[in-house]
Amino acid sequence: MNRLLETKAITKKFGGLAAVSDLNIWLDFGELIGMIGPNGAGKTTVFNLLTGVYEPTEGDISFADQRINGLKTFQIARIGAARTFQNIRLFKNLTTLENVKVAGHMNTHSGLYASLFKTHSQLTSDSEIDGRARKMLEAMNLSHAADIRAGDLAYGLQRRLEIARALATSPKLLLLDEPAAGMNPQEKQELMGLIRKIREDFSLTILLIEHDMKLVMGICERIYVLDYGKIIAQGNPSEISRNPKVIAAYLGEDYSDDTALETP
Amino acid sequence: MIGKSMRFWIVRFLTIVGILLGMFFLSKIITDNLDSYYYQILIQCGIFITLAVSLNLINGITGQFSIGHAGFYAVGAYVGASWTLLWQPRFLHSAPFLQMGTTFGDAINLVIALVLGVLAAAMAGFVVGLPSLRLRGDYLAIVTLGFGEVIRIVVLNIDEVGGARGLSGIPTLVSTGGMAVFWVFLLVIAVVVLSKNLLQSVRGLTWLAVREDEIAADAMGVNTTKVKVTAFVIGSAFAGAAGVLYAHFFTGISPDVFDMNTSIVITTMVVLGGTGSVTGAILAATLLTSLPEMLRFLKDYRMVIYSLSLIIMMLTRPQGLFGTKEIGWKSFHRRRRTSAGGSAAA
Question: Residue A252: its pLDDT value, please?
């Protein structure tokens, strides 16, 4: 069985409002899947459900053959689901390198005692983490910025650092929440290349939320379309771009008959 | 690998022995030569450095705004003093090695008082740390403030520990043979070295990450709950130790020593030093403890000038004396080349 993630009829209600209802999605190992939908469709809520920020009101989520609803965010991160944030959430006062090292801490074998007393094993394990973090920065083309305060980085670099930090947790699944938000066309182009590359290099499964159709249609193998918390369509990019329901959700009913969404 | 590790531990052991011996002789020299007025100020400084640096673990490094640190200080002082004044004479007065008055007996009793005081304060820290899981910012501050007051009021109403009169006549265990500075220095070194070690480790980075962005830290696999409670426990434990030493040096404690004012002063030290900076906390604690004494020549205007200088310091350096920087730790210099390195500041 090569299924990495599967949700079975999950629903999340906030008071009376069902932000996500009866959601069934699945990801196989190595897939690159997109999730699109208008603003407020519930995409980020899905991410929050998958990473344990929210617990589903109903339904089950299984990840790597393990039922993960009810697990805490940090536990889910430890079993291999890492994410980036729509509104960048870096540790602003730490340096670029330190940001990545925080994510690498899971690989430390030494406890609090070892850190307080600076034992030999702690120094060894910390320098391993340091080395791995530097390699990660190199892979993500961020080496030159290693000692710069993360909050002072240029916007594009901050986005890239978020991905580097997520990768440093050695995830199986990477959840990217609008990675191209605020980027110019050239940066977006670079990002597409980067996402493909890290997927190969780290043998990742990727689920990404994005508004930029060009990017989603360009790199995703399969797309889920969400509207009002429900999956309204799924399929490969060309199917999605011709699906009348999707066009209606994005452009309004009037256009649904004769328009197709932009494809690359 | 084993050889390397062995050598590491031998070096470590020799360093500790060296520090202890050095401190012992330094304490002797200080005790013999320093005027008792300055001696007291020195002890006060040491105690407040411990309090400020330990609060820095909670406020500065982990970012949990606590303003009830005097509560833990009080728990340590009262539990420690209860041992030497009440429990030891009542239950173990006949044990030969626990006789007070001899250097050895005093040291043993002080260590027991320290252990009890630290444990009690750490437990209190655990209890107060728990709300920090659900509360943050202003709300947590109010809870910790309330806790500090609760401790004070509880002590005020226990007759066994003197109620409002407090406890007096606590044996001056630490003074025997010029040991007061020794114990205080030892505590200061312990809290500073442990904080520094933590900050230089990857684990310490995860603590800073909790302060920077709890949600992101969580998503990076940091058990934020554990970090926050641990910070409270360790920070409180050191405050408790400071309390034990205070009680056994000044020989008298009463609830008003540990009132809200004290908590606010300790918090001020952390903020003034620069949130998260250990060396900043040390400097601010020394400054705020000795300044009121240095200003004595101003007579009635003393506290006015003291308060004014606080306001001026905060106005001119709102990020604290050191900001988040440290001085003197080679490996800890944050190289903040904000404009260099090929990227424009965002």
Answer: 67
Q: How far is CA A157 from CA A115, A140, A190, A212, in A?
A: 31, 10, 12, 19
On chain B, the residues whose CB falls within 8 A of the CB of A125 are: 202
* CA A215 – CA B92 distance, rounded (Å): 77
pLDDT tens-digit map of A126-175: 888 999 999 999 988 899 999 999 999 998 899 999 999 999 999 999 99
Over the range B205-218, which residues count as b (16 or more CB within 10 Å of their CB) and which as e? Answer: bbbbbbbbbbebbb
Q: Chain B contacts of A115, Cβ < 8 Å?
A: 197-198, 201-204
Read off the tokens for B53: 């640096």
* A219 alpha carbon, distance to own chain's centre: 15
- State residue B53's pLDDT score: 95
Between CA A260 and CA B1 the distance in angstroms is 65
Which residue bears the tokens 């870096």? A90
**Residues 197..256 of B with a Cβ closer than 8 Å to A: which?**
197-198, 200-206, 208-209, 212-213, 215-224, 230
Alpha carbons B69 and B152: distance in angstroms, whole number: 12
Q: Does B333 touch chain A (CB under 8 A)?
A: no
Q: How far is B229 from chain A (nearest CA, A)?
A: 13
Q: Across chain A, what does the average pLDDT equal?
A: 87
What is the value of pTM for the model shown?
0.87
Q: Which chain B residues are within 8 Å of A44, Cβ to Cβ?
A: none
Q: How many CB atoms lie within 10 A of CB A193?
A: 10
The answer to whether residue A262 scores a pLDDT higher than 80 is no
CB within 8 Å: A101 and B198: no
Query: ∠ CA(B148), CA(B150), CA(B153), 5° rounding?
Result: 110
**For residues B32 and B271, which has the higher predicted lDDT (pLDDT)?**
B271
- Give the chain B residue nearest A120 (alpha carbons): B5
Say yes or no: B331 contacts chain A, CB-CB below 8 A: no
- Count of A-B CB contacts under 8 Å: 141
- What pairing do the DSSP bridges indicate for beta strands B252-253 and B167-168? antiparallel
Domain boundaries, chain B: 35-259
pLDDT tens for each residue of B62-116: 999 889 999 999 999 999 999 988 887 777 777 766 777 677 778 888 899 999 9
In 10 A of CB B21, how many CB atoms? 10
Q: Looking at per-residue confidence, does B300 or B103 come out higher?
A: B300
The per-residue pLDDT for range A37-50, each reduced to its tens digit, is: 888 888 889 999 99
In angstroms, what separates the C-alpha of B311 from chain A's closest C-alpha? 26
Q: Which residue has the tokens 């995860």?
A: B206
